[in-house]
């Protein structure tokens, strides 16, 4: 893009230099008509071309060179001596309508021109600053009628040139106007396309500035081609004034967006917004007072350009904003042309082709600004990419940190869980070790007596010192000791098996009645204590559970009831059907269990074994085995006891008809 703009810039410079050279060559003949000129302000607006020859009017002409901004001004110009007859043109920078009159032996020649006159009525359609006419040998005086000018009253500068030179200059200007229009159209369409594809608003505001500036600079070119069709846009003084307001206003908007003033200091933001608001004042004064409006617009243009130029310099040199240099360079050519126009107006220099130079300077400014827009977009895009990349990198690092943190959290949870498991296992192991030590102590103490008694009885039998009656009594006592010892060993064996291998139930469907009868028959201690065991109606008690587990449960519960029941008492075994379960309960008439001991039993805590009513010993594992076996068979363990009134221990099993 930059190389394209540089090439176009070179072509424009060469074209401008050649056109300026041709213009200087074509205007070799150029004579001022102000010498000896007379001026008359028609304050009553009553003078006509016919009245110019009267002596009363002639005496009113003065040498004061001043064009009125309130009334028409009549100008009397003398044709310099030595001017040969031919086709000539007057040239002036006045944009208001000028009427030219020549009086030849009763004939009045009339020509007119001006910016706001339709091209078809102009003396020179393509150029409103010239009025072309023929000079005859008898012609000596030219009369001009100038409409009230816009702005302050000012002197008139008017020259006489050969028509051929003017035509050549017009042709050159026309070619360059087409060239400028084509170049600006390319820049406009390119910028518009970039805006549509990139979405950068700088390109949109730049397009608006090109559009407004083109209307302001190339008004003469546009009025020739479109004045007849759109007179209100191109042949209207108010419309022309608006172009001189919209151009700097669009430049302010463009600079406001280009430098991103919204994010800058509050002072600069207020300055730009104040100038934008001031444009409304200029617009309001257009229908009120064109003269006042012209002065305001001139001030508005100067202040706007200076504000933007100063801010561009500040942004470039202090803020190190590289695209700002394009703004600085872009104002070089327009400022130079503006100085030439001022010098030409003040009469310090005589410069031809100022409109041509103004168009070229605008095209150059547009090219340089387009480079600035591209550079600004690249810089902002690069900064945005850096910020995006940095943000993505930070987000990635954050994600990595979060992932690592999550892994640490998971590890901590795992470690904490393992720690709790280890602590729980350690606690269980400590409890098991304590139970094991106790069991060894119990077994070593409790088994010594029965085994010693058995050894003594065997010795007596061998020596034949026992009578038949004594043998019957001793053998009955020995049988009770052996039964008690067998039950203790059986409880220990079941407990050790459950702790080492785990409890794996094998559920089957069976009647509780047969199992209860079997357990009652094996309860030999009940007869010794004269305890009656009663069973309720068990015919409907069909359950699904592990038969061996339930046998151990019932045996333990019945033996416990016998152990803690007084002589001549009753133990009741009842079965109660429920909605989904069968409740089996064993009730005795023993001393009962304290509430604290019941809570510990239900919780599964290991407790000390308690001797029975006849001093029966135990391991303290019976009820714990019952509780575990009931839970493994999907049942619930209950203990209901009142001290001094007996205990009822019950549990539930799944009904066989309710198992899917």
From TrEMBL:
PANTHER family: PHOSPHATE REGULON SENSOR PROTEIN PHOR. Residues 442-657 form the Histidine kinase domain. SMART domains: HATPase_c. It comes from Chryseolinea soli. GO terms for cellular component: plasma membrane. Keywords: Kinase, Membrane, Phosphoprotein, Transferase, Transmembrane, Transmembrane helix, Two-component regulatory system. One of its GO terms (biological process) is cellular response to phosphate starvation. One of its GO terms (molecular function) is phosphoprotein phosphatase activity. It catalyses: ATP + protein L-histidine = ADP + protein N-phospho-L-histidine. This is histidine kinase. The chain crosses the membrane at residues 176-198, 205-226, 238-259, 271-290, 296-317, 324-344, 356-377. InterPro entries: 7TMR_DISM_rcpt_extracell_dom1 (IPR011623), BphY/WalK/GraS-like (IPR050351), HATPase_C_sf (IPR036890), HATPase_dom (IPR003594), His_kinase_dom (IPR005467), HisK_dim/P_dom (IPR003661), HisK_dim/P_sf (IPR036097), Sig_transdc_His_kin-like_C (IPR004358). CDD domains: HATPase (cd00075), HisKA (cd00082). Pfam families: 7TMR-DISM_7TM, HATPase_c. Its EC number is 2.7.13.3.
């Amino acid at each position: 893009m930059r190389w394209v703009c540089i090439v176009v810039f070179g072509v424009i410079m060469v074209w401008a230099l050649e056109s300026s050279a041709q213009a200087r060559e074509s205007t070799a003949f150029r004579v001022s008509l102000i010498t000896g000129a007379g001026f008359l302000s028609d304050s009553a607006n009553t003078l006509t071309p016919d009245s110019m020859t009267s002596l009363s009017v002639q005496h009113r002409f003065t040498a004061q060179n001043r064009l009125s901004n309130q009334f028409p001004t009549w100008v009397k110009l003398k044709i310099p001596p030595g001017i040969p007859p031919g086709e000539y043109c007057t040239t002036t920078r006045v944009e208001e309508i000028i009427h030219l009159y020549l009086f030849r032996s009763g004939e009045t020649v009339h020509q007119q021109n001006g910016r706001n006159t339709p091209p078809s009525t102009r003396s020179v359609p393509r150029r409103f600053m010239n009025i072309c006419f023929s000079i005859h040998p008898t012609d000596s005086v030219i009369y001009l009628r100038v409409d009230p000018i816009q702005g302050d009253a000012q002197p008139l500068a008017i020259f006489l040139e050969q028509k051929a030179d003017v035509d050549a200059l017009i042709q050159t200007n026309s070619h360059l106007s087409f060239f400028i229009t084509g170049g600006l159209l390319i820049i406009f369409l390119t910028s518009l396309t970039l805006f549509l594809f990139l979405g950068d608003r700088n390109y949109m505001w730049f397009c608006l500035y090109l559009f407004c500036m083109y209307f302001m600079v190339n008004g003469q070119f546009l009025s020739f081609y479109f004045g007849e069709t759109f007179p209100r846009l191109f042949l209207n003084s108010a419309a022309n004034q608006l172009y001189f307001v919209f151009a700097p206003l669009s430049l302010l908007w463009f600079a406001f967006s280009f430098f991103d003033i919204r994010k800058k200091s509050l002072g600069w933001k207020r300055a730009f917004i104040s100038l934008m608001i001031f444009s409304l004042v200029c617009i309001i004064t257009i229908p009120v007072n064109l003269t006042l409006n012209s002065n305001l617009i001139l001030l508005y243009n100067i202040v706007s350009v200076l504000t933007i130029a100063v801010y561009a310099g500040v942004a470039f040199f202090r803020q190190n904003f590289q695209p700002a240099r394009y703004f600085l360079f872009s104002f070089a050519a327009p400022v130079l042309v503006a100085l030439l126009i001022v010098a030409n107006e003040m009469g310090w220099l005589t410069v031809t082709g100022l409109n041509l130079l103004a168009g070229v300077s605008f095209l150059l400014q547009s090219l340089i600004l387009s480079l600035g827009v591209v550079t600004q977009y690249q810089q902002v895009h690069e900064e945005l990419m850096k910020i995006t990349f940095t943000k993505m990198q930070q987000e990635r690092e954050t994600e990595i940190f979060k992932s690592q943190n999550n892994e640490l959290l998971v590890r901590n949870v795992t470690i904490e869980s393992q720690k709790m498991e280890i602590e729980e296992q350690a606690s269980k192991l400590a409890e098991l070790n304590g139970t094991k030590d106790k069991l060894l102590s119990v077994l070593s103490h409790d088994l010594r007596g029965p085994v010693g008694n058995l050894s003594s009885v065997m010795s007596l039998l061998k020596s034949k010192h026992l009578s038949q009656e004594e043998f019957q009594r001793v053998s009955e006592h020995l049988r009770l000791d052996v039964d008690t010892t067998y039950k203790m060993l059986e409880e220990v064996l079941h407990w050790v098996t459950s702790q080492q291998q785990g409890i794996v139930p094998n559920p089957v469907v069976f009647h509780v009645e047969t199992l209860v009868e079997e357990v009652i028959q094996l309860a030999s201690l009940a007869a010794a204590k004269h305890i009656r065991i009663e069973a309720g109606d068990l015919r409907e008690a069909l359950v699904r559970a592990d038969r061996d587990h339930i046998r151990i449960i019932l045996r333990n519960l019945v033996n416990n009831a016998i152990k803690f029941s007084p002589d001549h008492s009753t133990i009741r075994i009842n079965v109660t059907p429920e909605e989904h379960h069968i409740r089996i309960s064993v009730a005795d008439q023993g001393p009962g269990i304290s509430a604290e001991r019941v809570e510990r039993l239900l919780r599964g805590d290991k407790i000390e074994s308690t001797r029975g009513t006849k001093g029966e010993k135990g391991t303290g594992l019976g009820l714990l085995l019952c509780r575990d076996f009931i839970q493994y068979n999907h049942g619930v363990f209950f203990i209901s006891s009142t001290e001094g009134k007996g205990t009822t221990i019950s549990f539930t099993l799944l009904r066989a008809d309710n198992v899917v």
